Amino acid sequence: MSVTKALEEARACAPTGQVILETMTLYHPAFVDGAGQASPLFIVNDDEPLLATLEASAPQMGGQTVTFLPIPFRGTRPAMGPGKVPVFSFELDNIGDEFADQIELSLQAVPRQPIYCTVREYLSDNLTAPSYISPYKQTLTDITVTPTKINAQAQTTDSSNVVFLRSVYTLKQFPGLIR
Hints:
By secondary structure, the chain is mostly beta strands. The protein has one domain (5-177). It contains two helices and ten strands. Strands 1, 2, 3, 4, 5, 6, 7, 8, 9 and 10 form a ten-stranded mixed beta sheet that branches. It is globular. The termini are far apart.
């Protein structure tokens, strides 16, 4: 995914040997694991599988150690501006038949339910929890599937109503707010 200049600089200063592993998790009721149990699709932007622990508050399998499949992906950050809804574009390469089949089945499911996406980053020297989790719930739109690639857009479901200050400041609690 493209990064800002500041993030690029911070990553360049990371300790030697520490790698940032980008992951993506796709959620849909039609997705199943090898045993036929409902399970999200876990992807790592690497060439080897990744065993890492999800945060306790994950939508499914919270606090559990899961295997992220090595599937290269590229993404672009959304254009920001007044009146624009942030839309991320991404592309997954070399997905294989099983993965593509699950995406296609989810697109044909009735009733139609969206595919949700969570982006996480792990540090290679600490896989017990993500070092970064996207604060937005993203919904996949405009999905196209070919035998080797998936292209999609990821749109935040309600970015205009995301509460950035997690505390509510009241006059009773903080009377100094008014002069």
